[in-house]
Amino acid sequence: MRHVPRSLPMILLAAFAFLVAAMGIPAGTMAATEVTIWTAFPDMHDSVVKMAEKYMKENPNIKITATLFPQRAQEEKVAVALPAGQAADLIELDKFELYPYYLNGFLEPLPPDIEAWVKKNWPEYAVKNSTANDGKLFNFPWYNGVKMMFYNKDYFKEAGITKLPTTVDEMIAASKKLTKYDARGNVTRAGLDYRVMGGGAGTSQKYWTQAMIPYGAKVIEPVGGKWRAGYNNEGGRNALKMYIDALYKDKVVAFDHKHDAEAFGLGISAMFQREAWVVGYLEKEAPKLNYGVFPMPKGPGGWGTVGNTMGLAVSKSSKVKKEAFAFAKWMMEAPQSVFQYDYTGWQPFPTAYDYSSLYKKKPALKEFIEYSNKAGHTVYDYENMPAISEVHNRMAERIMAAFKRADLKDNPQGIAKVVSETAEETNRVLADHGMLGK
Amino acid sequence: MASQGSSVSTPPVRATDPGAPQGAPARRGGGSLRALRKSQLAFLLWIFAPVIALFVIIRVIPIFVILLFSFTNYSITRAFWRWTGLVNFERLIGDNNFLVALWNSTVYVLVAVPAEVLLGLFFAVLLSRRVRFESFYETLYFLPYIIPMVPAAIIWKWIYAPGSFGLANHYLELLGFGRVGWLTNPKIALLAVIGMHVWKNLGFFVIVFLVGLKNVPNDVKEAASIDGASQWAQVLRVELPLLKPIILFGAVMATIWAWSAFTEVYIMTQGTDVSTGTEIAVLVFRIYQEGFRFYNMGYASAISFVLFVISLLFVLVQFWLFRGWKEEGS
Amino acid sequence: MRQPRYTVLLHVVLMVTSLAMVFPLVWVFLTSFKTSQDIIRATPTLLPETWTLENYASLTQTAPFARFFLNSLIISGVSTLFIIVTCSSAGFVFAKYRFRGKNFFMLLVISTILIPLQTYMIPLYLLTRWLGWINTYQGQIFPLIIMSSGIFFLRQNILTIPDELLDAARIDGASEFGVYRQIILPLTVSPLAAISIVNWVYTWSMFIWPLVVANSEDMFTMELGLMYFQRQFITLYGGIMAACVVTLLPVLVVFLMFRTRIIDGIAYTGMKT
After folding, report:
1. If DSSP codes are grouped into helix, strand and coil, which group holds residue B83?
2. Which of A28, A68, A86 sits opposite C228 (nearest CB)?
3. Cα–chain-centroid distance for residue A176?
4. So where are chain B's domains?
């Protein structure tokens, strides 16, 4: 019979000792005043860390600690920590995700002097989109996800397209000319890489930009102080038809090829819709690609794009609110904004800053900045309504399921049914939150 | 089994042990029985009770709190909540997303558990034939189990990727077959994810069953082979039945893991080359979505409640099926 | 009597299936040595065009992976040491003691396996906050010092230990603690080794709990560190695979260490009839 290793009690003792010792390992040293910031995207995180280094040199009594919780992790983290008063001083999240927290008193609105500064330097639509119902700015609009169409100049020349599309019909016609197939009929080059799957609300965001806006459909529209689904109409049906035709009639895009920036960089797509960060990505991964950008085309129902706000908010439980606001404001001043635009490609809001030093290397960035100021053109953003995230996520699931249905080709009743059922669900979500208007 | 009177009974005496008298076994002296009880009580008090207390604090109470939340409209972003009774459950019944997730989870369990148990048994039986390089094979089978889930799911996303840049499709096309929309085809997306789940966990079952098979006493094995039974008959009729308590353990663990599958499903819906949500959504995915994306914690808790009850039922059924053999030999 | 043909067939089946199982991991390993251009090309190749160590080098540049590694080691190590004690002692009581309410507690323990941690994370988080253990090691470890399935498994095992052994020790004057130390523990080395591995794997690759408890980078585990390779809309596959290989090694070592204990150390324990 084996004896218990004499060492077993020693092992346990060691474990206890280890644990006690570990408890003593300091989790970072305390400097004079510490401002913590949680960032949600690795590229921005790198940029913030670099900026923080500079800030700390200029302000030696402040310590900035930036921690990265990418994408979904940030949502979960904030969901658990913020209501419990354990969140960082500064939190980066989509504006529409910050809004519910503000409504429940977990975020601190911008103080009057900073608010005035933002109002002076930010475009009007940006200020409007971050203004809560009580008239206060509930977050710093940090950077802008304005979408434009990227296109491959070589492929356009090859297909004989000399004028850039300005209307939706022109764009669809161009996409047909640009698509290439293999012997089995598989799409080898997408004429227009519609976003047909993946990532929930991202798909509905691209769908909103690509199809709903030009055909005049809104995700939700205001009705007497409340909201209602705004796409159960001809515009909404045309929007879905646009994608179904692209997939099954004109066959300019398919499910089984690579998508997004990766595909565009590899030359697997001729056009696609995305934000300014792609410029930085292409510079690194596909430096020889001959590409350009053009504005989202006009449609029979409207002309615009989606420029969703990425926000930076201060938590109410923060003990260093003044310092947090000061750091945030500093990060959005001209020199830092130019650095950020260069380093990450994410577009700062103030259009009056001088970004010209970047334009030679990356001419596309200029287009993004000038884009928002066009007359007749609207930059849309998520509405400030607490359930907007749920509305978009649910809509995304339904339209993604619809995209898989080849039977919707040349099937107006089928399309109408999908649209009305989706709208019904949107209205139900609104009703659940007491937000449905009649 | 609980005795009346004192809370700690005398040590059970085997009815099959003819040597010992009924009642208290032979002891050194008269006070030893009390000493024994005192010692057992001490053990219970100082060791067992703290462990159970930890259980209650770390698991039972939080679970109970969550189950309570299913009767409220608790939302993460809202500071206050109120009791809403069965409203969440009523809504569940009509919620298509929930029903599809329930169906998906059921399919998940019905496919993954037999696959893991049967394949695990199959390979364990092969390995128990005393082959050379046994430890080499075992380690290979076990490797997928110990790799972290995130990189594993990423690799499988790549394997399943559409078009010719997905590894699976790439090889299929080389062999002359057509492409398969592993994750993009709604009909097979769930099975593709389950395939990955089984791949990942199989090693665990191979090892567990192998340990059990090795434990079959040699005299039993020899008796069977002397009888002239073929290898397979010997396995089926002699060794496997002895393995039933282990198979029960394996089946229960496989069931629980299948019901609580989440990470692989979650990762397979991220990114732009993958499946959409609904066709592979399982219950825990919906719980996560409702609770952390839509902030409807009360509703998410109601789904957790359903998950809890259903998996409890499955486990109880398995215990009942294995009833006759669970305590065999103990 | 086994025919030679049969053995060859056996080996072929084992070889093919085990290599098939491991094939995706071969990709993980080889990808960690590829450049990013190599990785995202339109047609994948098995071997790298150019072998590179840049992914491994980038590990410490991207994030303090050495610290993450240490943290994971502490958390998994302490957790595993605790469950060895808690599972064997509780399993002992459930298997060999009789008292009122024992079955109730058994059911209580088993039923807690059924719900994954994500679902009851929030009350647990609030408890952690109340204890002041947010962003600490103890906060990440304490929910992991008990293991319901481990108790279940140990119980099944201890059930097969003959009572005569226990009684003999008691007659010789051993207290219950002595019985536990001298009889139970040596005889349960195999199942304890098994649940040690399971627990090690589980705690090592846990994501959601360390995520909510750790507020600052110096408390991150390896698994959290993998997040850094999910760039905004693309994945740095090379980096993730390199991190994965590094993460895999300690778990593999623990497995190889315990393997013999599990499989060979079963002469006196296990599920005998």
Report:
1. strand
2. A68
3. 28
4. 35-69, 96-325
- Asked whether residue C138 is domain-assigned, the answer is yes
Contact A40, A69 (CB under 8 A): yes
Answer yes or no: is C150 within a domain: yes
CATH number at residue C132: 1.10.3720.10
Tokens of A119: 């109002």
Structure tokens given for A96: 């529409």
> Structure pTM?
0.82
In tens, the pLDDT along B124-164 reads: 888 887 777 788 888 888 889 888 787 788 788 878 877 76
Class (C level, CATH) for B96-325: mainly alpha
Sign of torsion over alpha carbons A407, A408, A413, A418: positive
Q: Which residues of A touch B278 (CB under 8 A)?
A: 397, 400-401
How far is C-alpha B96 from the geometric centre of its chain's CA atoms? 27
* Beta-strand pair A378-380/A304-315: parallel
Contacts of B78 in chain A (CB under 8 A): 104
Is residue C154 one of the residues assigned to a domain? yes
Write out the H or E segment, with its range, that includes residue B214.
Answer: helix B186-214
Query: Subunits that touch chain C (at least 3 Cβ pairs < 8 angstroms)?
Result: A, B
CA atoms of B179 and B189, how far apart (whole Å):
14
Residues 316-345 of A with CB under 8 A from B: none
Instruction: Give the Cα-Cα-Cα angle A374, A375, A378 (nearest 5 degrees).
Output: 75
Contact A348, A329 (CB under 8 A): no
The interface predicted TM-score of the complex, written ipTM, equals 0.80
Q: Which residue has the tokens 């055909």?
A: A215
CA–CA distance, C75 with A84 (Å, rounded to integer): 24
- Structural domains in chain A, sorted by start: 33-144+307-369 (3.40.190.10), 148-306+381-432 (3.40.190.10)
Instruction: Indicate the number of domains in chain C.
Output: 1
Q: Over the stretch A123-137, which tens digit does the pLDDT of each residue have? A: 888 899 999 988 999
